[in-house]
Amino acid sequence: MPLLDLDKITAGLSRTWAGFLRDWDRTLRSGNYPETTRYNYLLAAAQLARYLAEYSPDPDADAAADDPTEVDRAHVEAFQAWMIETRSAGTALNKHKALQQFFKWLLLDEEEIDRSPMDRVKQPKTPQKLVPVLPDAETTRVLATCKGKAFLQLRDEAIIRLYSNTGARLSEVAGLQLADIDLGTDSVRFHGKGNKDRRTRFGPRTARALSRYLRARAKHPAADLPDLWLAERGGRPLAANGIKIMLKRRGTAAGLAGIHAHRWRHTFAHAWKRAGGDTGDLMLLLGWASDDMPRHYGASAAAERAQETQLRIGIGDHV
Questions:
Q1: Are both 163 and 226 inside the same structural domain?
Q2: Using one digit for the tens of pLDDT, what is the confidence trace for 148-185?
Q3: Is the full-model pTM beyond 0.85?
Q4: In a domain, 240, yes or no
Q5: How many whole angstroms separate alpha carbon 162 and alpha carbon 187?
Q6: What totals of helices (H) and strands (E) does the chain contain, helices first?
Q7: Distance CA 116, CA 120 (A)
Q8: What is the pLDDT of residues 86-122, one digit of tens each?
Q9: What three-state secondary structure class fits 82?
């Protein structure tokens, strides 16, 4: 089932709001925007419309709830504050960025407004938190739950090792095809955000786990499917949500909470920066277009280095 259900996203909205969102989605599709990006953009705009219709204390919000060209700065700021209160500052920031794109489209592409209501709306400040990493010992515990030669055990070990060894996104590993794995060069081709492909090497243990899985996969009833990962039953591929559930289940079996694919992505970036790896190379390996991400994920490595320097210098310890 596709992620983006436009009828569901626009359900309950005015005919004008729904029409604009359908037109915007057509523009996004023609620009080859990924489905996840389109979904997040459209959802943010629909949430603004619903807020104006159902939750806004402003008695003058009715016109904006009916027509997005009537939205002003005060409406957006109130929505943003509501998002911070009911969700989080991080969620509010994501909505802010999506609404910037929506009103930019209304201004430049559709010429329906003379000025974007986002012009003077400040981005919400988000707390700076160190990204948690996953120690090798904990990855070992998760892998220990996969010991055995059954199909599920071989498949899950290969998936976990690929996340740990490459730092790939959940969707990138989930979307792999058989043709993306090259055991001759021990490399994998990931299809990243923005339809950008990249090839990444993996180590011998991951290669061995993949090879064992592929032998078991060849005997699976759905072996003719092009998808790399197969569900145990039903003759269908294993979707991203299925991998997410599997990782959580394996983590629970290992006695660990909060196990998900992004933990290994964080850990990969941490270990790379901790070893003094080049930021540009890290961006290529993890499919980042902006150096904001390696700075964010590298903060934990910088903090560790700072603590070690503090202990080595011993300021205040000699008095």
A1: yes
A2: 999 999 999 999 999 999 999 999 999 999 999 999 99
A3: no
A4: yes
A5: 10
A6: 15, 3
A7: 9
A8: 999 999 999 999 999 999 999 999 999 999 999 999 9
A9: helix
